[in-house]
Amino acid sequence: MKRTGFKFLALLLCAVLLIGGGVLASGAGAVDPNAATDTQGAEITRISVVVNGDTENSRGVSWATKARTDSIVLVSENADMSGAKAFTEGDVVLFLGYYMHKVVVSGLEAGKTYYYTVGDKSTRCTVCSFTTNPGRGEPVSFLVYADVQASNAENFEKGAKVVKAVYDLYPDIDFTTSMGDYVNDCTNEEWDYYFDKFSFIDRNTTNAPVAGNHDGNLRWNWFDSMFNLGAAEGSDTITGVYYSFDYGDAHFAVLNTNDMYPMSQQQQNWLQNDMNASGAKWKILMLHRSIYSAGKHTNKPDSSIMRNVLVPLIDELGIDLVIGGHEHCYVRTYPVTGDGVMPETSYVTEMYHGEETTFALDPQGAIHVMPSTAGTKRYAINENTMPYIVNASAKIESTRDQGGVAAHVEIDGDYLVFKAYLVDDETYTAALYDQFAVKKTSDGGANENWENLPTDFDSNNKTNIFNLIRQVLWVLWHYISQVLPGALFK
Ligand SMILES: [Fe+2]
Q: Domain 140-439 is classified in which CATH homologous superfamily?
C-alpha cells in the first residue's frame, strides 16, 4: 500500500519506541496435552481469548512470557483435552521486556464450547474454555463494565470482585467487554495486575476489549500488544484498535476514540461501511469516550468534537445501542436522535423470561448507556453537563458512595434487555441498579444503497493531517493546563 511521508514517519517513530522489539517465528510440533502444568502467574501470564474475525469459527489467543518460548495453543472439544489440535500460526513480539505470543485459532464450529491451553511443548497453563457464537437467530448475552483504571493490586482486586459478583449471576454469558481504561498509567506492572485479577473471566469466556485513553494512548502500541484482535483492514493500531464482530442477531462495532481527536476520517468511513454492510437485526456501537456523558470530561474538546462527528453517524446508520465509558458515573438516555432530540417513543409491557418487562417499542434513535465504573475511582456528576444531555437521560447519577457497577445485556430475537447492577463495597453483593429493554420488530439489515467509502489513509489525508494537528494542540494544552501546574507547584 502506498504510504504518505507522514505515515511512514509515524510508523518509524513507533518502531523506535519499541526498543528491542522484533517479530520472531513461532515454533510448532506435537504436544502432549497431559504435560500441562499450572504456571499461571509464573512463566505464562496475560492470557486472553478475544474476538478475531468470524466469531462463529475463530478466536485470537494471546499470552506473555518473560523468556523466549514457542507459541502453541491446544484446543479440544473435551475437558480432558483428548483429541486436541495444535495451533501455532501467529507471532511472538518482544514488547517492553515481555514476549507477547499471538495465535489465531480457526476452523471452530458455531455454538460450541472449546477447551484450550497455551504455552510451549513443556510448560503449559491450566485448561480453560470459551464458547463460539451460536449464529443468527440464537439468543446471546454479554457482560459490560468500564474503567477499572487501577494502579495497584488491591484496587484491581476490588474491580475484579465487582465484575465477578455480576458474572456469578450470569455464568453462561457468551462474551464480556470493558469500555476501556483497563489501567491507569499503562505500565507492565498494572497490566500484569489486570490480567491476573481478571483471569477468572478473561480466560473462561471471549473478550471484546475497547481501547481507553489510559491504555496506551500516548504510549504507542500498548493496547494492540495486550490483545490478539483482528484490527479493521488498513487501520493503524498505534493508539488502539477498532474492529467489528457479530454475535447472535447483533453486529458490534468497537471504536478507537484515541485515533486522533475525534477520529481519523478513515475510521469514520470504516464505521459507515461496516454498519451499512451488516445485515444484522441489532446494531451496537461500543467506545471509550461516551457521547452522552456527565463527568469531568464531558465538556472537554476531545469529547465535544467526537460528539459532533458521531451523533449524525449514529442516526444515519440506525444504531440501536451505544455503550461508552470514560466518565466513571452512570448515564442512561431515552432513545435519542440528533443532539438530545427525543422522538415520541411508545412502550409495551410483556412477560419476558418469566418477568413482567416494559419495552421501548421500535424506538427511533439510539439509547446511550455509560455503566459508571467497576473500579474504585468514581466521579461526581459535573454540574455543568449540557442541559440537553441531562434532559435526554433517564438516569444520571454518580455511584461514588454507592459501589462499583457491571451490567448484563441479553439479545433474544425481537428483545434486548439491559440490566445494570450496583455491587456493595463491603459485601460484594450485586443489586439491580437500572434496567431498560427494547422490542424491535423490524429485521434491520444492510443498507444496499450506500457508497463504499475509502478507508485508506491517503484518501483521507487532508482531514487526517488536520485532525493530527488538532490532536497535537490538544495534547499540548493538556500538559500545559493539567500536568505542568502539578509539576511546578507540588
Ligand atoms: Fe478514560
A: Metallo-dependent phosphatases (3.60.21.10)
Q: Could you tell me the distance, in angstroms and rounded to a whole number, from the CA of residue 332 to the centre of ligand 1?
A: 18
462 CA distance to ligand 1 centroid (A)? 27
Higher pLDDT pick, 13 / 323? 323
Cα–ligand 1 centroid distance for 247 (angstroms): 26
Contacts of 271 (CB under 8 A, 6+ apart): 242, 253, 255, 285, 313, 317
Distance 97 CA to ligand 1 centre (A): 26
Task: Kindly give the distance from the C-alpha atom of residue 5 to the centroid of ligand 1, in angstroms, as a whole number.
Answer: 31
Rounded to the nearest whole angstrom, what is the distance from the C-alpha of residue 289 to the centroid of ligand 1? Answer: 7
CB atoms within 10 A of CB 420: 25
CA of 257 to the centre of ligand 1 (A): 10
Q: Are 376 and 159 in contact (CB under 8 A)?
A: yes
* Residues near 208 by beta carbon (within 8 Å), at least 6 away in sequence: 50, 51, 142, 175, 176, 177, 245, 252, 254, 286
From the options 3.30.300.130, 1.10.10.10, 2.60.40.380, 3.30.40.230, give the CATH code of 15-131: 2.60.40.380
| pLDDT of 26 strictly over 90 | no
For the segment 87-98, the average pLDDT, to the nearest whole number, is 92
> What spacing in Å lies between the alpha carbon of 236 and ligand 1's midpoint?
20
- Taking alpha carbons only, the member of 303, 216, 211, 209 closest to residue 262 is 303
Residue 351 in grid coordinates: 412477560
pTM of the model: 0.89
Residue 9 has pLDDT above 70, yes or no: no
The pLDDT tens digits of the residues spanning 57-83 come to 999 999 999 999 999 999 999 999 999
Domain ranges of the chain: 15-131, 140-439
Give pLDDT tens digits for 363-394. Answer: 999 999 999 999 999 999 999 998 999 999 99
pLDDT at 315: 95
State in Å: Cα 481 to ligand 1 middle.
17
Residue 248 clears pLDDT 80, i.e. is over it: yes
Cβ distance 115 to 76 under 8 Å? yes
What spacing in Å lies between the alpha carbon of 288 and ligand 1's midpoint? 7
CA 424 – ligand 1 centroid, Å: 23
* Residue 41 pLDDT grade (very low, low, confident, very high; cuts 50, 70, 90): very low
- Is the pLDDT reported for residue 142 higher than 50? yes
CA of 422 to the centre of ligand 1 (A): 20
3: CA distance to ligand 1 center in Å? Answer: 31
